[in-house]
Amino acid sequence: MDERVTEESLEAENRIYARIFDGIMDRRLTPGTKLPERELCELFSASRSLVRRVLQRLAHYHVVELRPNRGAIVATPTPEETRQIFQARRALEGALVRLAAQHATPADIDGLRQQLHVEHEAMHGSDQPAWARLASTFHLRVARLANNAILENYLKEIVSRCSLIVALYEPQGNAACEHDEHAGIVACLERGDGENAARLMEEHLVELERHICLRQPDARPSLKDRLGL
Ligand SMILES: [Zn+2]
Ligand SMILES: [Zn+2]
C-alpha cells in the first residue's frame, strides 16, 4: 500500500477510531454488530486503507474481531473470557492502586475527587452512556497515578474489554452507583494506604462482575444510528 499517512489522514483516523470506540463504550454498538468496510468508508467519506487501519487498531484492543473474508464485527466475549478478563483486571488494578498510593500528591487527590463528582452527577442524571464512560475514567486516572506506562496500557486494553462485557451482559438500566466505592479508594490513596486501597479495589471489581449476567444482545438499529451520524 503506497498511500502515505499524512497528518490529515491521521487526524481522520483518530476521529473515526474515537467515533466507533465511543459507540461501543456507550453501548450503541453492541457485540456482534457488523462493521462493513464499504459502509464505513461511505459514512465517514474515508478511504479503504484508512478504515482498515482503524479496524486494526480496534482489533488490537480486542473490541473488534477481524474475521478473514467475512469482515469486522464488534467482539463478543464468552463467559470464560469474561471470567479471565475480570481476574486479570483485579490483579492489575491491585498492583496499580498500590503504586498510586505511593505516588499520589494532594493535587492528584483533588483531581480524583472532582472526577467522582462529575461521575456521580452523570450517574443520577439522564446521561447514563456518559456515566458508563466516566466510571472507567476513574479507574484509568488511578492507573495514571501509578507512574507505570506499561501497566497503564494493559489496563486500557482490559477496561475496553470490560466495557464491552458490561454492554453485552449487564441488564440495561441496572448499573449500580459506584460513587461510594470509588470514594473509599480515594480516601485510602490520600492516606497513602496501598493495602486497603487494593482490598477495596478488589471488592469493587468483584461487585462489578457480580452485576453482570448472561443475556442476549438487543435488536439492531442501523449502523448509521449507532455511530450517532
Ligand atoms: Zn469503578
Ligand atoms: Zn449515587
What does this structure look like?
The chain has helices spanning 7-25, 37-44, 48-60, 79-103, 106-124, 128-145, 149-169, 179-190, 194-210, 223-226, and strands at residues 34-35, 64-67, 71-74. The longest helix is centred in the middle third of the chain and has 25 residues, at 79-103. Helices cover 68% and strands 4% of the residues. Helix 4 packs across helix 6 (128-145). The radius of gyration is 19 Å and the shape is globular. Strand 2 and strand 3 (71-74) form a beta hairpin. The chain is mostly helical and 229 residues long. The model has no long low-confidence stretch (mean pLDDT 87). The protein has two domains: 7-76, Arc Repressor Mutant, subunit A (Orthogonal Bundle); 79-210, Four Helix Bundle (Hemerythrin (Met), subunit A), CATH 1.20.120. Strands 1-3-2 form a three-stranded antiparallel sheet. The chain binds zinc ion (2 copies). The site of one zinc ion (ZN) has 6 residues, from helix 6.
**Level-1 CATH class name of the largest domain:** Mainly Alpha
Pick out the low-confidence regions.
Answer: none
- CA-based shape: globular
- How many structural domains in the coordinates? 2
Ligand list: zinc ion
CATH topology of the largest domain: Four Helix Bundle (Hemerythrin (Met), subunit A)
Under the CATH scheme, the architecture of the largest domain is: Up-down Bundle
Q: Into which percent range does the helicity of residues fall?
A: 55-70%
Radius of gyration: 19 Å
Number of helices: 10
